Amino acid sequence: NENDYICSKGMEEPVEGKRTWVQISGLSDIRTIAEIGKRYNISNLSLEDALSTDQRPKIEFASTYFFITMRILDTPDKTEEQISFFVGKDWLVSISEHTSDVLNPVIKQLGSEDNRLRSSTPDRLVHALTDRIADQYLVRADELDMQTEALEELVVNQAEKVTASMIHRHKRAILHLRRISMPLKELFNTLSKGETPFVSASSVPFFRDTFDHVLWLSEECETLRDTSQGLMEVYISSLDMKMNRIMKVLTIISTIFIPITFITGMYGMNFIHMPYITKTAWGFSFVIGFCIVLSIWMIFWFKKKKWW
Amino acid sequence: NENDYICSKGMEEPVEGKRTWVQISGLSDIRTIAEIGKRYNISNLSLEDALSTDQRPKIEFASTYFFITMRILDTPDKTEEQISFFVGKDWLVSISEHTSDVLNPVIKQLGSEDNRLRSSTPDRLVHALTDRIADQYLVRADELDMQTEALEELVVNQAEKVTASMIHRHKRAILHLRRISMPLKELFNTLSKGETPFVSASSVPFFRDTFDHVLWLSEECETLRDTSQGLMEVYISSLDMKMNRIMKVLTIISTIFIPITFITGMYGMNFIHMPYITKTAWGFSFVIGFCIVLSIWMIFWFKKKKWW
Amino acid sequence: NENDYICSKGMEEPVEGKRTWVQISGLSDIRTIAEIGKRYNISNLSLEDALSTDQRPKIEFASTYFFITMRILDTPDKTEEQISFFVGKDWLVSISEHTSDVLNPVIKQLGSEDNRLRSSTPDRLVHALTDRIADQYLVRADELDMQTEALEELVVNQAEKVTASMIHRHKRAILHLRRISMPLKELFNTLSKGETPFVSASSVPFFRDTFDHVLWLSEECETLRDTSQGLMEVYISSLDMKMNRIMKVLTIISTIFIPITFITGMYGMNFIHMPYITKTAWGFSFVIGFCIVLSIWMIFWFKKKKWW
Amino acid sequence: NENDYICSKGMEEPVEGKRTWVQISGLSDIRTIAEIGKRYNISNLSLEDALSTDQRPKIEFASTYFFITMRILDTPDKTEEQISFFVGKDWLVSISEHTSDVLNPVIKQLGSEDNRLRSSTPDRLVHALTDRIADQYLVRADELDMQTEALEELVVNQAEKVTASMIHRHKRAILHLRRISMPLKELFNTLSKGETPFVSASSVPFFRDTFDHVLWLSEECETLRDTSQGLMEVYISSLDMKMNRIMKVLTIISTIFIPITFITGMYGMNFIHMPYITKTAWGFSFVIGFCIVLSIWMIFWFKKKKWW
Amino acid sequence: NENDYICSKGMEEPVEGKRTWVQISGLSDIRTIAEIGKRYNISNLSLEDALSTDQRPKIEFASTYFFITMRILDTPDKTEEQISFFVGKDWLVSISEHTSDVLNPVIKQLGSEDNRLRSSTPDRLVHALTDRIADQYLVRADELDMQTEALEELVVNQAEKVTASMIHRHKRAILHLRRISMPLKELFNTLSKGETPFVSASSVPFFRDTFDHVLWLSEECETLRDTSQGLMEVYISSLDMKMNRIMKVLTIISTIFIPITFITGMYGMNFIHMPYITKTAWGFSFVIGFCIVLSIWMIFWFKKKKWW
Predict the structure, then answer these.
(1) Between C63 and E16, the higher pLDDT residue
(2) CB pairs below 8 Å between C and D: how many?
(3) CATH homologous superfamily for A243-304?
(4) Which positions ≥6 away from C259 have C-beta within 8 Å?
């Protein structure tokens, strides 16, 4: 097909009237990247942003292209990485730290025949790519939501299996997601306003759609943060309750035995003239019986006070 | 009546000069939905939003209709669901996950004669429907407010019947309501500005009225969140107080009996030359009497210290 | 006087060139209210807002009047209620739930001769009335501030007289005041901008003055909320300190008596060959003396550790 | 000098072409104040604001003057008070509750020859005065910052000398300063925009300078609030740690002595056939020795568990 | 090179057509500073801001220059200091408290041949300098992030090595960084808008780049603050858990020994008619055996209750 993209994983000359997607994975081959920057008229400042891997997600405009940088979340196989897109009239340059599986479905779509994406302009292609990434965020938010519920379940029912650091690590993950997703609101808002060069009017509803998802995501993050906050409180109060239970056992045992131990101590004193009871045959049994009665009475008292 | 709505639960051709309301319940019959989307010129993106059931409540405008998506709260019978409205010049398409009882009163109104709604434009009809849904939110907020008071009552008077997770679950319900009602502010604000196509000037005061309710709702949610926050603190402090009471009992019992147990231990020692008192007839009674006096004195001391 | 207001507690026809104030107290006589609504051209939506008693305080504009709804705080005699004002060119309709004493001073002013209010336009009259209500809020905020200080005093000095629920209830009262006063900022801001129909330029400084008070009030509410938040923390820490004190007593008593009780136990053992000391005349006194010395040493040790 | 200010502490007629500063201290002489209000064309509403001493700091504009009201902080001698400035083309009226020392340096400057202030317009004079007051706020913020550090030092090192109410009172002072300084941002922002009548362009940089200080002050207040918040947490955790230490002592003492007291109890039983050891010469010493060894082993065990 | 900067550490006359950078380190030589202020037409207010060392970071504009003041963070050798830049058409005056090493790389660049900076306008030079300073902030934020993780590690694994004040001090450092970096957002936003005199269009992307870094920094500070907040909670809950462990040991020991000590006390009573068991040969062993069995049963019971 005439409109098909030329996909390349290295240097590729821009061809007039042909759509090109240059995919750079790995930042070590600086020379190629510089070469591409030169051919596609990419400013050095933008290239440096793409190469330094701890950039704030953002969008920037130049005269011949616009520039997006985002973060791809870690997957079971890969660590978190940064990806940058340079979008021109009929070309797209993407620079990422390593090959990520997240964008594979889009690459597949480009390869399958009769797919609309195949003959669409670079703005639609970059939408498909960034939408995939934003989707990954939503999936992560849902995972974190389920983890929150699982943790909650655990805190309530088996608090001894939970540690404060589990909750704290969970909260950090939420804060991290929130931090890298917050700038996306601004980014997609800009793209969905329809005043961006190289973004055609027909692409605006798509970016608008992604913007709605990102808004929803950011509210989800807020709710998650509030909920995980509450989780810590529930955990601390469950520790308090456990302490209460331990103290109750100690107190009940002590309160029952301390007084009757005093009684045995009393009759253990070495007085010459002991009370008459010590001289009777039934004395010992009587005292022990009294101790038992006293204990039972105290147990009832605790039951009445709802301690047990 | 000539102005009456044609209500249909399936595919229905739009008829020029006739008002139509197509009510789709259930998202399984994709083909009918696609067919309706085609006939009423609904864009695919909007339809997809209506079909994916975890959308952020929002309003969107197209050239021939506007599109609202909201959530209907769970009722005793039904789970929470998403409902979407497509509002055109003289037609309304609603797509929901299942048949909900919430909108029944409006449907009844449409059926009863001499009702104004019957001959009103679709914007008024969609107002009636969304207002019902927003009303449900207000009712839920009131329920949560009453639950808050009930929980409060319980925490203060019978803290042992409360668990931290009850309060936490209550707070989650509040956060959920807050999250799904927040976007409604934006939605009804847009509709009450009177610059929306297909919303006639005469409908604006109605949407303005609903907007006021939603504002009130969002402030209620904030207050609820703050109050439920405080509830957890009251609960934790009630646990602390209970612990204090338990510890007090243990301390009082220990403090009274430990010293007098020492005294009995003292006279229990096997010295050949015991103090003179052990040889007297009144010695035993005297020591026991002293222990009782000591105990009583300590009880008075605790009372004075306001421990009891 | 020709400019005097015609005050009426029921239906009253508007008279051209005459100022009228219709005061409706009680919402049960729906027919009269509907009748008045008709004569004064009040829209049904506004009337419904006046009749449903849980409205968000707000201001709304119609072509022939503007509409204010606010809440009157509870007084010792009366419960909290909603009051609505409809202000036209030369008439004022007020609808409240029951007769409240709060507005009496203004009614008196209207009755007394030579009072400016008597010959002023309805906007000035409605300012006098709403200003009275806002004043009541300021008084309540001051009361809550004094209660905060009293609670604080109590928490610090007599924590046993305070319960967590007292602080919580206090905080709820603050949150309630905050919630019903927040919308007043918007309301009086609108009125003090001078672009409102039926509000003459000469009244604007008066509304501006009330707006300043309401701003001050809202900041007071924020400060109150923060302070009451801190109060709970002080209370919890006072519970902790009390627990510390109780535990200290238990620990001191236990730590002193447990070792010396062991000593008495030691000499209470039934060995045939006991240590020489048990056979001496001074043995008993010596052991008891040793116990006393040990106790005193421990007391000094606690004092040195600043436990006492 | 011709441009010198006529300073007066009572009624003073405005003189055309002469600069006047009327300083009213004390609000009891209502008649003089009313008289001045009349001569300088000051509206009654503004005068009332100057007389009621619990006003929100603000700025207001009239046709012939502008009106500022602020609070002067308490000094060792004086309580907090309100001061109001009415600034006209060539006159300044200040109304304060009592004579405050804070403004003395400015008054001195006015008196000393060759001082620029002497021949400057009232806007510059009012800048000098309000800048002095804002400076006092900055000094107070610095004091509170140092107090925060001192309290922190104390909490960390001598927590027993600190009470929760000390921290709470400290926090209240911060909240109070924050509350009365927040409106100053708005006030000086208005003055530094250069669109205010009676404020010459040459004065704008001065007000801009004060505005910068006030911005810095407000951020300082935020930081102070956050820090004092943390202080309470450190205090509560220091109470917790103290409790831990107390409990550790109790637990160590109990855990060592309870088992060996059981041993002595064992040999204190009155059985006819006691174990052989009770009949040996070395039995007593052996049992006591065993108790000592057990205790030492337990102490080592605690040391290994890092309890000591 | 003709375009080279004349760098001077003291007074230097501005030369038409030559670029000058006057670097003042140390604020004691007031006369030189005043002299420079005169020659370069710097207003007194700006100079005073540069001399008083506790200014809010800001940017201000005058007709012949613009003025930036920022803070340089403390390094291992130097304390935190303030630095001010006055940027004119072809000159730059910097005033700092002492010589700082942070700017050395830029000074080196100016010295090395063929460096672009050497022939650039003062706005680019001031960008290089302020970017260095902002970079230092980012490095500090990363350090604080790593410290947070280290503290977290410590709190979770070796809580006894952590004190509340360590966490508090850490949080203060974060709050301090946040406070001095917040105004930078405003500062660089102003510079990156491209409407600033003496900032050429070609410099705007550079300032925009720094602005992005500062935005990222401010979000990092927010996340750090939230995380350090959580750290305190984890710490307090780790104290609670430790307390729980201590109390468990105490309770287990007490609960095992208190009942069996009662048994020994029972048989230690001096009754004439003791139970038959005290007269048997196997009595003593039986009772001790019973105590051991009871203890073992209790240990199993605790194990089952998951206490151990």
Answers:
(1) C63
(2) 138
(3) Magnesium transport protein CorA, transmembrane region (1.20.58.340)
(4) C294, D253, D257
